[in-house]
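Cross-check.
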Amino acid sequence: MLGLVVSLWGNMSKILNFLIVFTMSLALASTVLNAKKRSSYKKSKSKKSKKKRTVKKVSKVKKSKSYKKKNYKKNKNNNKKKLIKVKNKKREIIHKRPKAAIVREAISIDIEILKNEDVSYVILNYSSSLLQEWDEKEMINKETKYFANIPEGFVLKGGVSYYIEAFDEFGEKVANYGSKELPMLIDTYIIKRAGGEIVLIAGKEVKKEEEASSSLMDELADFDLDSDIETVSSKVQKTKLAAAIVSVVTRSTILKSGAKTLIEVLRYLPGINVKILPSGNYSISIRGVAKDGNVLLLLNGNRVNNPYNSEAIYDIPTSFIEKVEVIRGPGSSLFGTDAVAGVINIFTTKKDRSLKAFLGIDGNYSVASNYSVNRKGLQIDLSGGVSSDDGANAIITRDSSYEEDWSLTYDNKKFKTDRWSKNAYLSARFSNEKLELFIFAMENKRGAWVGPNFTATQGTSYKSDIIVYDLNYSFVKSEKLDFKAKVYGNVLFTDNFLVTAPQGYSSTLSNDYFMRGKITKEKYNALTLTTELSLNWQVLKNLNLLTGLSYQYLKILNYDLTRNYSLLTEKYHANNFGNYDDNIDLVQDGKERSSVAYYLQSTYDYKDFGATLGLRFDHYDDFGLTINPRVGLVYNLFDILVLKALHGQAFRAPTIKEMYDQTDTSNTGVLGNESLDPENVKTSELGMELSVWKLNFSTNLFFNINENIIAPFDKDGGGAISKYENIGSTDDIGVEAEVKVLLNKYFNAFFNISWFQREFEWNAELWKEKVPDLSKRESILTNIPMRSINIAFNFNYKNLGIFLGVRNRSRALNNNRFDLEQVKILNIPEYWKLDFNISYSVSNNFLLYFAGTDIGKTHYSAPSDLGDSASVFGEDGLIQPSYTLRLGLIYRFNFEKE
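Predicted model, tokenized:
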């Protein structure tokens, strides 16, 4: 720890110099921003002095003003008589005002204008009583009848206000219903459980204990056809309008499914497959891409991937998760490295006071609590919990050494997997109007599923303690402008105890008998520190600009690797651990990496059309510059049909391990390569989303070109030391489709299907010697199921909630890239799995549930993310965890009350 502090202190001067230079370069911009800040402060101070709430004036530029400037002045002389005629002509609006609406459900506004010949367009202005921000929408013209919807995001508790204005072609108001000073108010109500009937809340007196607030059971009934998302453009927008293919899993969805960890949350999303590897680490594949570092995992926008090897921890509990946003496709234009196949962003809970616990089979239990308080403008959100799981272990009848008499699968022996886990976490967020501090600490201990490699062993343990921190301060923060500085990163402490061969292993090199087995101890600390200045500016009503400059510093500290044997001679040293091989150099110890990044993204919206253009430059001191652009076009037709055309590029920097690791010089080892190029992907996508009645249908077609893929390479095809190389490229094509149905307040469901195909081509530079002679260098990669189907049903009635989910994955085959793969056939069978959750609401704030996962026949997966299809565990592949059952409770204190 002392070395970590010293290293951090030694680099503070670099960071401070960087900030000073950048800040001076923005001096001129700061003057303008400060002026805006003073103006914004005067307005806010004036508003605070008023005791009663008044409706905010519209700050955005209205279309009427635009028409006045562009058309009225231009045609002033030619159309003067006509304009006077229009002003004097009365208009009558016939309008049936909605009396009440359900909270978080869009409201339909219909009007009819008599004597309509001079009306060119009609604007609907609306504002939530909670948001107190006005927005506008041009109403759809059907001759004299006009209609539009007030979006569900504005229909919150307390009601929604609106008024209507009609304009001629020159921007002159010719009719209106209501005014900015006296708008109409629509009462809103929610569903409360009182004898199974709907009770009207807004607009009538209720007892204190019956105050309008959602219950846990109401959350089970909640179902969004179109959720909010922030990850795509660093601003809140609807998923269907975001310039990306995205999915959002809300707190209510997690509650319905009974999911305990992130891994259970993700497996029902389109294009995503989940499996467990021999090491016990979970692997996520998005659109067929499954490898550490190709999926970026974020926590409140902060990187969680291991700085040394880019592994991600998917055992994160759901007890403190507010929602999960998933981008399927490239995300490097905003987030930099690792965002190749997709981005997973976890948002922690806010303003929640609850206690959660569950108990299940296989030593499965968890206790967690969330607490929130607001004191004098300071919002404090705290979460903490502990959990344990002995794993849904299974029986393996064969491993890579099943022919050896020391193997745990030799002859008729059967090996039971040993994947256990113990976790503890603490999350804290402190925020006010301009300052926010977020800290997350987690201790993660787990065992291996089989062993560190393909050999069955017992006693392996992985320990990773991670601290994620984020401090940001807004120099200027208003409705249109946010200029902030950030310091963020993570610190990782790793201590692994790896049993690579079981007790009783007998060496053919030294003839030594390994009473304790072959053991390796690996320890290291990793630090990342990032400083960033960012500007998010609503330049015009329709134009948003996001830009920033960052500097990142990464260092591997105290790397140490020892064994109880000599790697080359296999001389056994029992309980004495050390480095017994002179040729092994711990190059990664003290290894540093720094990078500078600049990003710029603009978003332009005009009527029903939206365009996003982004560009990011990343320069690394060890491999150079990478440039990643992004373009997105979105067309929204009548809020019914949305069309998307997207193109983006992303990259994955070679990890410290891939570039510098020289610790395994055995004939099965893999060495680092300092001349590696970064992986990159170019993705083109076409998307469509149709919303009709209570149904939402979305589909997308994607095409990827993945280049410079990094993987271990042995030109002899086995039996010699490997090296990380840029082995080749792939071309991917695929389609995803999803249907969501909200039939009524009792029943909702969704169905999604995904299919992809991946074609691999070797890097010709690696095969100059043509050894071995491959008759074909192109191959269809099929070790991941090419088709995935997910179906889920939610039923809620009175105090009972039922979730049923079904997952199907097609069979998977060996890749046939090597001659060896054609000999050792892998034929993973198709499988179906059932998950369920039954919830019962004892009271508004007390919920009991009973959940079951992975119910069905035993299923299998490929044993490696790197395409190893040699059937070391049998022709079916590596067996996966069996079913689990658990009983849980959730109690919420003072739910949604301050």
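The longest helix spans residues 27-48. The chain has three domains: 57-189, 226-345, 346-592+604-892. Passed to J.P. for a second look.
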